[in-house]
């Protein structure tokens, strides 16, 4: 099954926690137009597996999804608050609580030359890993530098790793292209 492009997972933000925040797309749009990329526990499990945070055997519940969304929004609020100089106390509390949870133990399998993660609570361990990345990312947001996509409807957080750090959009092929098309149309309308 091919998903519409807006529903595809984004793994181009430059940090695990920012990729997680990108599971809600079009943050600049009104709430009813936003794109929820993890609307079900199964879809959230798919995201975790694609990140390598859980194995195929991890079963997720509605409660896991609710916890994930609460953490995701706290990370978003924390990073945006740090960038904008806002009060991040409540968001930091939520993120720090998750960061204190145990993470999965990596194990190397010499037969397959792969790494697997083991935890008695794989979903909580995955959320703890994301939260720990968020703590580090928020603490270094200015020096990384974390940016907000310049497209009004997107507003995705990303780390600008380009030479000279001139990026304005989360992706040149997504929002950058849309901005160029819009500018072209505006120049060529009568």
In short:
By secondary structure, the protein is mainly alpha-helical. The chain has six helices and six strands.
Structure notes:
With 190 residues, the protein is mostly helical. It contains six helices and six strands. Strand 5 (146-148) and strand 6 (157-159) form a beta hairpin. It has a single domain, classed as Orthogonal Bundle (Jann2411-like fold). The strands form three sheets. It has a two-stranded antiparallel sheet with strand order 1-2. The protein has a two-stranded antiparallel ribbon with strand order 3-4. A two-stranded antiparallel sheet has the order 5-6. It has helices at 16-21, 41-51, 62-84, 89-99, 122-139, 172-187, and strands at 24-25, 35-36, 105-109, 114-118, 146-148, 157-159. The protein is 45% helix and 11% strand. Helix 3 runs parallel beside helix 5 and helix 4 packs across helix 5. Pfam families: ABATE (PF07336), zf-CGNR (PF11706). This is CGNR zinc finger domain-containing protein. Residues 146-187 form the Zinc finger CGNR domain. InterPro entries: ABATE, ABATE_dom_sf, Znf_CGNR.
């Amino acid at each position: 099954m091919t998903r519409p492009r807006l529903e595809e997972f984004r793994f181009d933000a430059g940090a695990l926690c920012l990729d997680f925040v990108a599971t809600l797309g079009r943050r600049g749009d009104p709430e009813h137009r936003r794109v929820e990329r993890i609307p079900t526990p199964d879809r959230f499990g798919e995201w975790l597996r694609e990140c390598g945070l859980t194995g195929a055997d991890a079963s997720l519940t509605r409660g896991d999804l609710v916890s994930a969304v609460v953490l995701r929004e706290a990370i978003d609020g924390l990073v945006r608050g740090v960038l904008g100089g806002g009060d991040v106390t409540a968001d930091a509390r939520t993120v720090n609580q998750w960061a204190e949870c145990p993470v999965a133990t990596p194990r190397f399998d010499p037969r397959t030359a792969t790494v697997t993660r083991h935890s008695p609570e794989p979903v909580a361990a995955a959320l703890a890993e994301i939260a720990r990345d968020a703590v580090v990312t928020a603490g270094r947001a200015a020096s990384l530098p974390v940016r907000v996509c310049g497209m009004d409807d997107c507003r995705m957080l990303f780390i600008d790793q380009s030479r000279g750090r001139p990026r304005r959009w989360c992706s040149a092929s997504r929002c950058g292209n849309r901005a160029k098309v819009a500018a072209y149309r505006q120049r060529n309308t009568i």
